[in-house]
Structures
1.
Amino acid sequence: MTEEKKDSKKCNGKKKIMVAYGFIQLGSSFVSAIALAAIAFSFCFLKKESKAFNNCVTEIVENGSTNAQAVRYCNGGD
């Protein structure tokens, strides 16, 4: 009878460790998913910003400036 209690105590400790491991694994997966979503949104905003920059450069070049002057102007230069 004492052997059964010892076995159940050993098993009980392993169960707690496995449950803790499961929660840690689930939490890390959740954090990874949020990080990937943030990266995807940043690419979306980057695409919009690059499109606006390209439109700015095209417009300035059409007004008679060189490409270098247009890029400088669209980057915030004079």
Note: The radius of gyration is 29 Å.
2.
Amino acid sequence: MSDAEGTPENPWQLRTAPGSSEYTMHRDGDELVCQVGSTTLRYQARAIEDLHAWLAAQGDWVPLGAADEQKPAADGTVEAFGRAEDNPVGGWYGLRKGYRGRFGMYLPPLLEHLGLVELEHNARNNRVRAL
């Protein structure tokens, strides 16, 4: 991984866990900018370290549980952690109202790319665990 990777000029090139969608992410100050087609989602950049620490504390496989903001997240999933009132930021890591969900869809592949987690790549019901 080059030092310049993850910048607006050289974003991380990622695929969702099932491999069905491509997207990019890059760091912009304290934000992660996730570009999925014409849709832009923004997450707090500290989500990388916080999610990795949470996964390590779980000690085993955790379901992704990706869900849109308007839908509930299943308990015990990465998605639920990304919006839980007791997570390190006290709620949503997503920053753009109406587009704060899908934490479980877009963050785990980035952590895998960074070498922090092992991620399943099944057609559905994927899980992740810290390395």
Note: The first strand starts at residue 12 and ends at 15.
